From TrEMBL:
One of its GO terms (cellular component) is cell outer membrane. It is found in: Cell outer membrane. Residues 1-21 form the signal peptide. Keywords: Cell outer membrane, Membrane, Signal, Transmembrane, Transmembrane beta strand, Transport. This is TonB-dependent receptor. One of its GO terms (biological process) is siderophore transmembrane transport. It is a multi-pass membrane protein. GO terms for molecular function: siderophore uptake transmembrane transporter activity. InterPro entries: Beta-barrel_TonB_sf, TonB-dep_rcpt-like. It comes from Ancylomarina salipaludis.
Length: 569
């Protein structure tokens, strides 16, 4: 029985091992399953926003406090305040009249009277009369003594009338200037030549008036200005000139900027001009100058800019049309201390007898001057405020000028053909010659208020000229300088000093280039205030008595001085 059990167990074990071996062999077989089933993995569900936990437990703040009061003894007792009283001191009187009278060597006499109305709410006007004359002997280069005679007179009335939202301004004036051509003649041989300018005296008369109407609205509203101008000029030899015109401007706010428009129209007629190359003495010239200048101005903080264009046209004699840029900008580099500025512009100058004679009165009568065009001018510089009452400026410019005129003795001036008619003799009077000009200039200016008593001022300018045809820029200096100082010694005494320096200037004499010596004019002055009504003063110029020529052939006065008084009443 035992043996059967053992045998049965062995058989069972053997069969199990066989079956296991067979299963292992079957698992190694390759099984291919054919079906349309494609397994997919379901998208996982994303967890939403973080759950909000609301705390249902609340706490109530509860404070328990108490103040123990205690009285303090204060000994302060308010005092009585006295009632205000009106001051009995009189107001400082305002004076409407001033009168200035002075005299000096060279028979010099100066008088000036001014009147301004007082205590008017809507109208202010004034009257101004001025006389200046000088007469004394001078010595020319050839040791000839001459006696210049110079007189000037001015009378003008001006005023403003204020409306509710506008202002009306007017001025009417008359002035004259008389003098003689005392300068030395540069012609060496006058035989067989005719002097068509055989006069020695000259007199200029000028009468003019202008009126302007200007609105005074808020900056956001339209503001405009309209004006009319009339000027009549004559000399002692039937030469006359009429200048009349209208002008206007308008401004309107546009966002952060300002639109502006300026325009003018001038009509000029000159009679009895002299063409010295043909000896034509009764030539008339009529010209009109029209100008229009639109621009846009914008201000952003410390930045200011102007963008514009200027169009100018001459109609009539010497017709011409020019278009110029009009660009300006300024920038605050350091607030209240340092500013920078720059610009690009140009201009057409319609030269007239009046404008030329104001620069050099010794031109011959009936001089016809052509127009001058500054094709472009580039400039820039810096302004700085040193202190509350002190400042400095540095600037430079470069300009291209077409048809610039230069003064030259008439017997040295050139015609368009390059020479003068042999029968013509021009004595000691000036004409002009022309050339295109390039110039670069540097300017420095300093104004120092060192303290309440002392003020110093200085201005220096250097200019370099480059010309196309002429040898030099006749009568134009390269360097100019002016310095002034004033010192308030006491409430009554005021002292001042001045130095004027003009560098050497090239000139043309008898067909040869020469130079005028530099001018150094040093002067001193003093003023004593007697009271609110009367003050006395004295001035001395050209203290070193240096020989000076503002114009070739015309020496200026030596040491000269004036003593005067000023009345205010």
């Amino acid at each position: 029985m035992r043996i059967k059990s053992i045998l049965l167990t062995g058989v069972v074990v053997t069969m199990c091992l066989f079956v296991q071996a067979q299963e292992q062999r079957d698992l190694k077989k390759e099984v291919k399953v054919r079906t349309n089933f494609k397994p997919k993995i379901k998208k996982s569900k994303r967890i939403g926003e973080m759950p909000i936990v609301v705390d249902t437990v609340t706490f109530k703040k509860d404070f328990d406090y108490s103040i123990r009061s205690k009285s303090l003894n204060v000994n302060f007792k308010p005092g009585s305040i006295q009632a205000a009283k009106m001051s009995t001191a009189p107001l400082k009187k305002v004076h409407g009249h001033t009168f200035d009278l002075a005299a000096g060597n060279y028979a010099t006499l100066y008088a000036d009277y001014r009147y301004n109305n007082l205590q008017s709410k809507k109208t202010d006007f004034g009257l101004h009369l001025q006389h200046y004359s000088s007469n004394g002997k001078l010595e020319l280069e050839d040791n000839t003594k001459v006696k210049p005679d110079w007189r000037e007179f001015l009378a003008e009335i001006y005023g403003n009338h204020y409306l509710d939202d506008a202002k009306l301004s007017s001025r009417i004036f008359y002035k004259y200037k008389t003098f003689n051509y005392y300068g030395s003649s540069l012609s060496e041989n006058n035989a067989g030549k005719e002097n068509i300018f055989d006069y020695n005296d000259q007199k200029f008369n000028e009468f003019g008036l202008n009126t302007t109407y200007e609105t005074l609205n808020d900056a956001k509203d339209l503001n405009y200005k309209l004006g009319v101008v009339f000027d009549y000029f004559t000399d002692n030899y039937n030469v006359s000139e009429v200048d009349m015109g209208v002008n206007g401007s308008a401004e309107m706010k546009a966002g952060e900027g300002l639109w502006s428009l300026e325009s003018s129209l001038d009509f000029i007629q000159t009679n009895n001009l002299v063409y010295w190359d043909s000896k034509l003495k009764d030539h008339d010239v009529r010209s009109s100058l029209w100008m229009v200048n639109p621009s846009y101005n914008i201000t952003l903080g410390g930045f200011n800019m102007r963008l514009g264009v200027k169009a100018q046209a001459v109609l009539g004699n010497d017709s011409d049309f020019k278009l110029y840029p009009d660009f300006k900008l300024s920038l605050v580099l350091v607030d209240r201390i340092l500013n920078m500025f720059a610009g690009l512009d140009g201009n057409l100058d319609l030269n007239t007898i009046r404008s030329i004679s104001e620069k050099n009165p010794f031109v011959h009568s009936g001089l016809d001057v052509e127009n001058t065009s500054t094709n472009y001018r580039v400039y820039g510089g810096f302004k700085t405020k040193i202190s509350e009452k002190s400042s400095a400026l540095f600037s430079m410019e470069y300009a291209n000028i077409e048809n610039q005129y230069f003064f030259s003795m008439a017997n040295d001036a050139l015609t368009s053909e390059g020479d003068l008619p042999s029968q013509t003799y021009y004595s000691n009077k000036y004409a002009v010659v022309y050339d295109d000009l390039y110039k670069i200039g540097f300017t420095g200016e300093l104004d120092l208020q060192l303290n309440e008593e002392l003020n110093l001022y200085a201005l220096a300018k250097y200019t370099h000229y480059s010309l196309d045809g002429l040898e030099e820029a006749w009568h134009m200096p390269n360097f100019e300088m002016e310095t002034r100082a004033s010192y308030q010694y006491t409430d009554q005494w005021l002292f001042n000093a001045r130095l004027l320096f003009v560098g050497k200037r090239p000139v043309m004499t008898n067909g040869k280039a020469a130079q005028l010596d530099a001018i150094a004019d040093f002067g001193l002055g003093a003023e004593y205030t007697w009271n609110d009504i009367l003050s006395l003063y004295a001035n001395v110029n050209n203290i070193f008595n240096s020989e000076a020529y503002l114009w070739h052939g015309y020496p200026s006065q030596g040491i000269n001085g004036m003593i005067g008084l000023k009345l205010v009443f």
